[in-house]
Amino acid sequence: MADLLVYFKRPNFWHQTINIYYWNTQPSSSTVQWPGVPMTAEGNNWYSYRFSGIEAANIVFNDGKRRKTADLWRNQIGWFIKDTWYDRHPETPFQPLIVHFKRPITWQQTINIYCWDTWPSSQTSSWPGVPMTAEGNNWYRYEFREAEAANFLFNDGKGEQTKDLHRNREGWYLKRSWYDENPDKPSIPVISAIPKGATYLDSQRIILSSSNENDTIYYTTDGSEPTVNSTPYGQPIVIDNSTTLRCLGCNILGEVGAISEFIYTIDPNADLRKPTITSSIDSGNYPEAIAPNFTITDLRDAAIIVYYTNDGTEPSRKSNIYVQGKAINGLTGPKMIVNNTTNLRFLVIDGIGHETYADFYYSVSKTVEGKEFREETIYFLLTTRFYDGDPSNNFFCRDRIKFNHYGQAEDPHWRGDFKGLIQKLDYIKDLGFTAIWITPPIENRSGLDYHGYHGYDWNRIDPRLESPDATYQDLINEAHARGLKIIQDIVVNHSCQYGIRGKVWIDHLPIKYYVPHGLQQGQINYGPYHGNLGNYQSEFREDNDNPVAPQWFKERQNSDPQGCVPLVDPVTGETVPREGYNPNRFFGIDANNLDPEWYHQDGFMAGGDWESIAIHTKHLAGDTIDLATRRDNVKDYLINAICRYLDMGVDALRIDTVKHVERNNLLEYINAWKAHKPGLFVFGENLVKGTGWGDLFGDDNAPSCLRPWWYTRLGDDAKNPASGGDSGLSVLDFSLFSTFRDNVSRGSFQGIGSILAKDWVYGDATQLVTFLQNHDVGPDNDFRFRFQGNTEWAAATYNLLWTIRGIPCLYYGEEIEFMKGAPQDIIGNDDTLDQTGRAYFGDHLEDDKIQATQSHPLYQHIKRLNLIRSRIPALQKAPMSQVNEWGNAMSFVREDKASDSYVAVGLTIGGEQKIKINKVHNGTYRDAVTGNTINVNNNTISFSVKANSAGIYVLNGEGKIGEDGAYLR
Question: Is pTM beyond 0.70 here?
Answer without folding.
Answer: no
